[in-house]
Amino acid sequence: MASPTDTTGNSSASDGTPVGEAEPDDAAAARNDPGQPSTATPSSTAAGPDTATTSTTAASPSTAASPRRSGWRRVTSLQVFSAVLVAALLLQRPLAAALDGTSVRIAATVFVAVCVQALPFLVLGVVLSGLIAAFVSPAALGRLLPKRAVFAVPAAGLAGAVLPGCECASVPVARRLIGQGLPDAAALTFLLAAPAINPVVLVATAVAFPGEPAMVAGRFGGSLATAVVMGWLWSRFGRPEWIAARVRQRVQPGSGGARWWVFLETARHDLVGAGGFLVLGGLSSAVLNVAVPASWLEGLAGHLLLGIVVMALLAVLLALCSEADAFVAASLGALPLLPRLVFLVVGPAVDVKLFALQAGTFGRGFAARFAPTTLVVATVCGTVAGLLALGGAR
Amino acid sequence: MRRDTQNVLLVLLGGALIKISATDLYLRYVKPGNKWYLLTAGAVILLLAAVSLVRDAWQARAGARRPGPAGDGHHHGHGEPHSPWLLMLPVLAIFLVAPPALGADSVQRASAGNSVTTTASTSADFPPLPQGGAPELRLSDFVARAVWDRSGSLAGRDVTLTGFVVHRGGAPELARLVITCCAADARPMVVRLTGAPDLPSGSWLRLRARLLPGSATAADGYTPSVQVLDAEPIAEPTEAYEY
Question: Would you say residue B191 has pLDDT above 90?
Fold first, then answer.
């Protein structure tokens, strides 16, 4: 859906009058290169992330000088939005009837369930992100971790244990940590570790596998190793430009009461940004949930290696929340423990929902490199941790 | 997407979360414990959107009277992605369709038998059943006892079970879906019925039944068979899942 007036430059547009400088977003996006001289003036009390992060283009002369298309009333996104709402209301009956097919109905329920389950965690994540932007100075952040990446990465991994939430919460937080100047490798390690090794997840794993503490140990070790190895790999081979430039636009924290405006605006901005991608992830997870046949799991019992590969792929496709996946793994009684441990290590590190969130937050170029590498690293780390913790393949 | 549109959408999203958690609708998707998360998240989303809307309106007025730095928030500017539009999908799904809780269709698609943990529980994990009558048991508890409890607590005892009927060829089954976080991780628990009334798939039943000895082994996919003594059709309960 096109919302052609995205480029309208100021809040006077909120009265619904089409503003002349509107132009296709692609053109505006193409112009949004970080090389633009910044004319940002963070002096006003209105210093929110929008102000701080977008002023490069909003105030750039090229935008102001863009050809005006007068004489054609542009449709505003609010009008499109209203039209979609009205159409949906009018079509409610046929819409409900279309959802009558068995698969579609199951997928619809799963889709809403994934969204409803994940949104509170996303809200937690954007609130934390807002607090970091408003109240944590980059200097304070720098003092938190050891200077050398070799040590900073494991420290960031262990710090992940304190954020009790699923992966949806850690993406906005990691993004803000990078924005406020934490080294990329440390922030990415935190991103991978937080959903996997927090106490809630470990307790859930212990409850799901009574009498098998090795599963908890294996999960902790495998997930922490995945996060740390990925962090080290990033600090060795990663390039800063793989992460979208917008992530690094630092928010001006302001002072006094202005901090709270920064907090509100950052949280709102991140919620809108990540929310759409969360929905995309929920959608693909719902479709795959219905499309992946149960027969995938039958006949895997005797094939350890195949079991590991299939379980790693399943973890990516099903995109279960990290607090629930242990119970699903526990219920797959026909499989040995090792493939199920790999399932638990891969799931919180990379899945379709997380991929969508990462692509939306850090850029598609980042996600396309990071996610496949994470899958390989997590599968290997999960297998090794499982062999060590379980004392062999069983 | 324009900033004011985003805020209107956020109001709807927060409203949707509050709506389903204030009613029992949310039980179709997540477990009861999520109610307060949902209410809080909905309230936070509403607050963020409302503050932003009010502030923008106020700044627009101030900016119209006295153009200056305060009214000059460059809110749009950089080809913002269209992704926020996707947030309309859950909003529309919740307000217009409100998909039903998963049920017999999901069990049909699952593989036969119960998926129980391989790590054996011991009889010590199962306290004795209450004396007398036909105590109410969750279907998942009943299956766990039938599979693992060697103390014979179910032997010769009547129990009361609630679930929905599923026909998958063979004997009719009584099933319930167990969820941990949300409906995406639902897994079926089933028992095989002998002597059940002939009802279509998806009908909810509350029945008094007795475990048939020798069932619920690896050979029958850990599916207990029960003799139905008494069955009463009921409406779908608000808590359709077990947790």
Answer: yes
Question: What Rg value do the Cα atoms of chain A yield, rounded?
Answer: 23
Burial degree of B68 (CB within 10 A; 0-12, 13-18, 19+): exposed
User: What is the 8-class DSSP label of residue B112?
Assistant: S
**Residue type present at position A60:** S
pTM, to two decimals: 0.77
| Tokens 């112009």 belong to residue | A31
Which pLDDT score, from 0 to 100, does residue A298 have? 67
Contact A9 B74 (CB under 8 A): yes
* Sole residue written with tokens 């307000």: B95
Is any Cβ of chain B less than 8 angstroms from the Cβ of A202?
no
Pick the closest to residue A20 from A76, A70, A77, A79 (CA basis).
A70
Burial of A148 (0-12, 13-18, 19+ CB in 10 A): exposed
Q: Return the C-alpha torsion angle A77, B19, B105, B186, nearest 10.
A: 100
User: How far is residue B71 CA from its own chain's centroid?
Assistant: 47
Query: Chain B: nearest CA to A172, how far in angstroms?
Result: 15
Tokens in use for A119? 């949104």
Q: Rounded to whole angstroms, how far apart are CA atoms A29 and A171?
A: 23
Closest C-alpha among B87, B21, B37 to residue A125: B37
Whether A113 sits inside 8 A of B182 (CB atoms) is yes
Which pLDDT belongs to residue B44? 96
Query: Is pLDDT larger for residue A131 or for residue B116?
Result: A131
Instruction: Quote the CA–CA distance of A219 and A193 in Å, as a whole number.
Output: 11
Q: What is the dihedral of CA A105, B116, A384, A222, to 10 degrees?
A: 60
Burial code (b: 16+ CB inside 10 Å, e: under 16) for A55-65 equals bbbbbbeebee
Q: Which residue has the tokens 């950089």?
A: B78
- B50-91 pLDDT per residue, tens: 999 999 899 888 876 544 333 334 444 445 567 788 899 999
Torsion of CA A263, A264, A268, A274, to 10 degrees: 20
Cβ atoms within 10 Å of B21's Cβ, excluding its own: 23
What residues in B contact A127, CB-CB < 8 Å?
Answer: 44
pLDDT at residue A73, rounded to an integer: 54
pLDDT score, position A257 = 74
3-state secondary structure of B230: strand
Tokens matching residue A355: 């991929």
User: CB distance B185–A324 less than 8 Å?
Assistant: yes
pLDDT attached to residue B70: 36
**Alpha carbon separation from B173 to A332, B80, B86, B163, B169 (Å, rounded):** 21, 52, 39, 9, 10
pLDDT attached to residue A95: 66
In total, chain A counts a number of residues equal to 394
Alpha carbon distance A98, A104 (integer Å): 8
Query: Could you give the CA distance from residue A250 to residue A254 in angstroms, rounded to a whole number?
Result: 12
Over chain A (394 residues), the average pLDDT of each successive run of 10 is 38 36 36 37 40 37 40 61 74 66 85 90 88 82 80 88 75 89 90 87 83 90 95 91 84 75 89 86 82 69 84 87 79 81 93 88 91 96 94 78
